[in-house]
Amino acid sequence: MATFNQPLGGNEMPRFGGPATMMRLPAHDSAKGLDVAFIGVPMDIATSNRPGTRLGPRQIRDESRMLRPYNMATRAAPFDSLQVGDIGDVPINTFHLPKTVEIIERYYSGVLQHACIPLTLGGDHLITLPILRAMAKKHGPVGLIHIDAHADVNEHMFGEPLAHGTPFRRAQEEGLLAQGKVVQIGLRGTGYAAEDFDWCRQQGFRVVTAEECWYRSLGPLMEEVRTQMGDTPVYITFDIDGLDPSVAPGTGTVEMGGLTSAQGLEIVRGAAGLNIVGGDLVEVSPPYDPSGNTALMGATLLYEMLCVLPGVLRRD
Ligand code: MN
Ligand code: MN
């Protein structure tokens, strides 16, 4: 019988001790032999406001130390049937954004050669563009579940095509997204024009504003999303600023009136049963996160993504 990596338990080493890998899993040199790899992208050179997401992966790993293997709500037991490891960080070029985007795409193309599902610790949201480029080369256009305060579909920012507010405009232009299978949840705040989210709707994206989510369970929404996605390969991209700043203040572009932490869990848990091929959690900025709770929220959402991957057993 195969043996699977387990998170180092709190009775073997105090939770504040030892190397800070994601969930205190073994560190691996590459994705070889792994079903799922946690990967950090320590990048903030595409941010438009507060910086700091370059420090996100380290802080998410550190705050993941309390996560235990079993999911008490969903009964998922991801470490009973999947080989999961932490393969470290992508060595970006912090002085050169276009080169960094190329480095990330190449890195993920390598990971995907190993039939391994990447779960990524960001990093600012531009990292999702090169990841989707690698995904599309392997899977073709993917469905997208995008949680965010922002649509991230700007044509340019300060004249530049690559910025953390442009990835999904580029992804759509490049044909990386499955048509009719993109949903954006949590959009809100102020815009440059009243029509700012209309470009998304014109592309056939489903836009669910934060106001449509207020005071409700998102279980029924996710039921619709599962029908919409069918068996298409799906990528989950979770910008932590989709959550309300009362629970996730440590991020660069804060907007009031966001999703609750329970709604964040409902979205990810509601993706169970889909053909998920990867996911990321982006925009955690530790300098603005003195309690560490934003990073902890990020770590928890990444764990919940792990729990809904194909092949995870449930101990019902
Ligand atoms: Mn974003
Ligand atoms: Mn955002």
Describe this structure in a few short sentences.
This protein is α/β, with parallel strands linked by helices and 316 residues long. It contains nine helices and ten strands. It has one domain (30-314): Arginase, Chain A, CATH 3.40.800.10.
Note the main attributes of this structure.
316 residues, alpha/beta, Arginase, Chain A, two-stranded antiparallel sheet, 9 helices, 10 strands, 28% helix, 18% strand, binds manganese (II) ion, Agmatinase, EC 3.5.3.11, metal-binding, agmatinase activity
Q: Bound compounds, please?
A: manganese (II) ion
- Which topology does CATH recognise? Arginase, Chain A
Stretches where pLDDT is under 50 for at least 5 consecutive residues are none
Q: How does the overall form come out from the CA principal axes?
A: globular
Query: What is the helix content?
Result: 25-40%
Biggest sheet statistics:
8 strands, parallel
Strand order of the largest sheet: 3-1-4-9-8-5-6-7
Instruction: Write the CATH homologous superfamily.
Output: Ureohydrolase domain
Annotation field: number of helices: 9
Number of strands: 10
Radius of gyration: 18 Å
> Could you give the order of the helices and strands?
EHEEHEHEHEHEHHEHEHE
CATH hierarchy: architecture: 3-Layer(aba) Sandwich
